[in-house]
């Protein structure tokens, strides 16, 4: 079975608010894309083996959310859907 992130595939948007200041958080994409120079070009499931999250086993996609008010980055696990 194949799984995919509904946010990365444009089926859903994230409307999360900062727990500190309640400002709407900006989705900066997959956390995996920030782990190294070539990480955006590696296979997604390959990155999930070494990123430190249980996202491969849990079928989630970890997104980086940025608060422009607090200048804080949060990680949010988005549940993947069957494709």
How would you summarize the topology of this molecule?
Elements: E1 3-4, E2 26-30, H1 44-48, H2 55-58, E3 60-67, E4 72-79, E5 81-82
Antiparallel strand pairs: 1-5, 2-3, 3-4
Main β sheet profile: 3 strands, antiparallel
The total of beta strands comes to 5
Cα end-to-end separation: 8 Å
CA-based gyration radius: 13 Å
Poorly predicted regions are: none
Give the ordered list of helices and strands.
Answer: EEHHEEE
Q: Average pLDDT across residues? A: 96
Question: What is the strand content?
Answer: 25-35%
Which overall shape is indicated by the principal axes computed on the Cα atoms? globular
Total helical elements: 2
Strand order across the largest sheet: 2-3-4
**What structural category characterises the helix and strand content?**
mainly beta
Total number of distinct structural domains: 1
Percent in helix: 10-25%
What attributes does this structure have?
83 residues; mainly beta; 3-stranded antiparallel β-sheet; two-stranded antiparallel sheet; 2 helices; 5 strands
Your description of this structure?
- This protein is globular.
- The relative contact order is 0.30.
- It has one domain.
- It has helices at 44-48, 55-58, and strands at 3-4, 26-30, 60-67, 72-79, 81-82.
- The protein has 83 residues and is mainly beta.
- The chain contains two helices and five strands.
- A hairpin with a 4-residue loop joins strand 3 (60-67) and strand 4 (72-79).
- A three-stranded antiparallel beta sheet has the order 2-3-4. A two-stranded antiparallel ribbon has the order 1-5.
